[in-house]
Every structure is written in structure tokens, then in C-alpha cells.
Model the fold of this input.
Amino acid sequence: MDHPAETPPAPDLVTRLVRQVLPLVALAILFAVAVRRAALTLTNDDTFFHLRFGSEFLADWSIRSPGSVTDFGTRDWVPTQWLSQMTMARTEDPGGTTAVAVLAGVAYVTYLLVLYLTCRAWSAPLVATLVAGAAFLGSSYGLSARPQVISYVLITCTVGAWLATARDGKLRWWLIPMTWAWASLHGLWPVGIVISVVAAVGISLDERDLRRLKALLVPLGSLLACALTPVGPRLLTEVLTVNSRGSYFAEWGPTDFTDGSPMILSALLALVLLAWFRTGQVSWLHGLLFLIAGAWCLYSMRTVPVGAALVAPVAAAALTRLVPEQDEATTGSDRRLAWVGWVVAVAALPLIAPHTLKVGPELPDRIEEDLAALPAGAVVLNEWKWGGYLMWKHPELDFVVSGYGDIYTTEELDRNVTLTKVDPGWDSRLDEIGPTVALLDAESRLAYALIHTSGWTVSRESDGVVLMKPPTTE
Done:
């Protein structure tokens, strides 16, 4: 005698709250964190040189042959994020720095939404929220008003597209025009091509079918498309040049695993390994993507967010095997609510930012006035950490040092390091520059050396900032 199949018991109230309500509450908190981060500070120095460059492109710079914002940066450089810079400058023109902060906030909450929706395609709401939150917080080192946040969004989209291809066998040809646009937005577009190559190989290995290697046409088409941007084929070689100069900048230094971002990403990577160990199931595709995410985590602090954006969908697929089956995993109400959260967050940004935003390093007002009183073209020897802000705030002056390494030759970068660290030969470098004034941290090596070795005098000092002038010649 056949017995009717038993209906599984409905989850109790606590279980339903944990599975359905808790993820949405956590996602709402994450949206609030993103809004708060954007609305409180616009202080990353790189933000300001992007604004300056964007205004120059909107004025008269050529995309194929741009100029320079300083006589002390003479490299024939290639712009890799001109479209983002122009967008930032166009946003600032009518709306000021508040509008720039709002634009950055939109990028943050969009990244969070994309993380959630991509993870949600492979897991239930609870796992999707936990993984998206971990990836977002693991990216926090790179979350600032800079074009790189767009790359994080597109990296996650690229991984999600290839995981979907592995599931249904359909190539996502739209990755080619997406990468073409990406190549004008930020210089991390090669990461998308690497992901595509690795994914194509992984899918072929999983299916044991060499014919699947035709998927390599997608990254090949993407590479060719990048040579057809307004910058032209020089964009392809510029990436190698820029990466080779990372040793001059702290964010390209070794990963500091005492920092929160790499710690969170490392924990997420460890959980993925645990899930695979317990289930004994891992595909070539997922394994290869995991490996390149781990490699980016190890490579430098700058690329930790790359690893976080890349591994999130893989982690969601792996970790969903560790939780009990969830009947609500196929419903879409949480996705709609996630979109609602995004809309609310975007709407809140222009309401909050005008009242809370801190802009720039807040140099003392009297020193800002002294800078404004200098004649146009005056040469200012400045702290590296203020270069972008100063060239944006005082475009009429000629600042020696900034964090936009693309515009400097290797010799000029060496000069900047020699001056900043007061390395041997710094005084001859100083003579070559012939600064009108120096604007430095009062506790810096260079400020001390100028006073005690070169006879410079302090014209104004306030709040740990010193404006200095060279000795007069008789």
C-alpha cells in the first residue's frame, strides 16, 4: 500500500525570521553604512586630482594627447580613466563637492546591490547577504570617491556572467561592449579579461570538451575592443607601464593582514575552502576563480578589493551548501526589496551629505589665503599627501608632487621620493626645482632639513602645517 509523501514541516517563526527578515535588515544596515561613508568624508587626495583632470579634459585637453598640470610632470602619458574624470568634473560643476560625494555614494550602494544580486543568483537570502556584506567590507580599503569603485562593480558582473554561462552554456557577448566602456572608466579593465580567459579554460576543463574553448572569443573580442576606444591602441601598453611603477606608491605595497579589509577577505576565502572540504565538490571554474582572487589578495593592498569583488559569487555558491535547504530560496521578493533599499539610499545621499560632509585635508584658512595670494605659476614644493587637493583648489599654482604617477617620468618619481625622504642628493634636486615656497607637514623630514640645512624660514605655521620661503639671495 502506497503512503502519501510526507509534507516537510513548515519552518517555525524564528527560522523564518532568520532566513527572510534578518538578511533584509542586514542589507539595510549595509546600505546605511555605504551612505554614511559617502556623506561624511571627501578626503581621499586622489579624488581631487581626478576632478582637476576631468575639468582639463572638459576644457581643452585631447584624450589622445593630454597635457600636464605641473611643469614637474613631463611624461607623455595615456589617460586610462578619462570618462570617469570628466563625469566627476561635470558633476562638480553645478553641484560642488557635495554632488561629487553623492556620486561616490551612488557608486558604493550600486556595488553593494550588484554584490547582493549576483550572490543571490547562487544562494538563499541569508548566505547572499552575509557574503555580499563580507565582500563589501573587504573592499573598504578601496572605497573612496575614485573611479576604481566602478571596476569593483564590473568585476563582480564579469564573474557572475561566466558562472551563468557555466550553468546554461550561453556566452555573454555583452561582456565585449562592457569591457570597451570599462577601458575608458578605469585602468583595471585587464582584470575582466583575465577573469574571462580563466573562466573559459575552467568551463572547458569541467566539461572535458575543447570545443568550449571557443568561449575565448569573448576575452579576445574584449581586448580588441579596448584598442578601439578614443585613446587608441596605446591604452594596451599603458597598463603595463602603470603597473611597473607601483613601487612608488604605498597602496601598491605588500598586503597588510592586520588591516580590516584583508582580514575580512581572508576569512571569506577560508570559509570557501572549508565548504569545499566538507562537501568534497569543487569545479575547475570555481577553483581557478578562487585562486586568482587569492592571488589578488596577496599581491598588494590596492588589489584586496579586487579579490573581494571577484570571489563573492564563488563564495555564495560554495557556502550555500553549508546551510539547510531553504524553501524561500527561489522567491524574488527580497530582490525587489534590495532594489527598494538602493533607491532609498540614493535618495538619502543628497539630503544628508550637505550637512555632514568634510572636504579635503582642511588646511588652515590663513595658509590657504597665503597660497591664493601667490602669483600665477609660483612653484610650490608640497607634501605628497596634499598634491591632488592643492592642484584642484589652486589650479593657478605649480605644485611639484602628487599621487597621480602617470604624469611623471621614472626620473621625476625618483626626484619626488628623494625630496620627500631627504635622501642623498635631495639638496641638488631642490636647486633644480627652485621652489617659490614650500607647504609641508611641520613634523616632516623635509621641513626640518629645509630649516636646519638650507636656511629656509617659516612664513606661517598653523595646526601642524608650515608654509616656508627660501633664503633670499643678496
Remarks:
- The CA atoms of residues 68 and 146 lie 19 Å apart.
- DSSP finds 18 helices and seven strands in the chain.
